[in-house]
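Reviewers of the previous submission asked for a worked example of the structure-prediction workflow described in the proposal, so we include one complete record here. The input consisted solely of the amino acid sequence. No template or homolog information was supplied to the procedure at any stage.
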Amino acid sequence: QVQLVESGGGLVQAGGSLRLSCLASRSIYSFNVINWYRQCPGKPRELVAQIISGDRTNYADSVKGRFTISRDNAKNTVYLQMDSLKPEDTAVYYCNAISNIEMRDYWGQGTQVTVSS
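From that input alone, the workflow returned the following structure tokens.
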């Protein structure tokens, strides 16, 4: 069973930065897409950023220019660098990895990010 473990969340003031990590229990080469989602209480889960095989990246409009997704294949880790944080970025952030050959995806347990004004 694949495990994804997020870390790096916490409390930060508006304008600050955090870097989230998603550590996979197997090579991240085995995934076609790795996503970062976030969810606020009472709201649907929102796709924030994704990195696709070949290192193509996509971002939600709300985070473009502030968040950067990257990967370290040797460490089986995907990062989400979050700069210029705003209170509306407060959410639980989840890592999601998609395997086309397995026809399934995997989720981490989430990490809380709280941005104070």
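The CA atoms of residues 82 and 117 lie 16 Å apart. We consider this example representative of the routine output the project will generate in years two and three.
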